[in-house]
Amino acid sequence: MKRLAFILPVASLLSACNSTPTVKGENASLAEVVAATKDAVRLEPGKWETTVAILSVEGPGLPAGMADAMKQQSKSQKVQTCLTPEQAAKPPQDMLGAAKNCTYEKFEMGGGKIDGTLVCKNMPGMPSGEMRATTSGKFASTSYDVVSEATMEMPMMGGAQKGGKVITKTQVSGKRLGECDAPKAG
User: Fold this and answer.
1) C-alpha distances in Å from residue 119, one per residue of 30, 89, 104, 129, 134
2) For a designed S-S bond to 54, which of 2, 22, 74, 115 qualifies (C-beta 3.0 to 4.6 A apart)?
3) Are 79 and 94 in contact (CB under 8 A)?
4) From the CB of residue 10, how many other CB atoms can be counted at a distance below 10 Å?
5) pLDDT along the chain (186 residues), means of 10
6) pLDDT at 46
7) CA-closest candidate to residue 165, choices 174, 175, 154, 150
């Protein structure tokens, strides 16, 4: 049974406290969470820097060194982009996830914090077909910092008798740097 609640404080309290609405959900689709959070997350348009870092990769049962090799291939990456007013009107996908066949077992966002458990099923190339990710972090109109821990079963590889569980911990953070750079003359 799907349950998604969008809790709005009294309008005068909302504007006086400069807080954001609270969104709570259980067994909600990614689309439902994105729709409910569109007013809870308002990033300011402008030049943003986003950093994605793999904090750890653990692979009990994987062939020796495979988890280390996976972590080495996924070093921290920084990207600068210009967030337009139209893009800023939408919830940031890197905080909420973008995979298909996913449901939030639980989701809560409000007061500058985000917390949730996302389960994705029937994922191609995965024997169990399931990935479970917990996410928690902070957000504001000019920054966000979210840590996710994803667990999935991997197929047999590299001569191993069986596949293994892989647990990956990732951090995604973003900060507004200022106004977008002026377009260069052609």
Assistant:
1) 10, 26, 6, 10, 9
2) 74
3) no
4) 8
5) 33 34 83 77 90 84 66 77 85 56 88 90 65 92 93 62 74 94 72
6) 95
7) 154
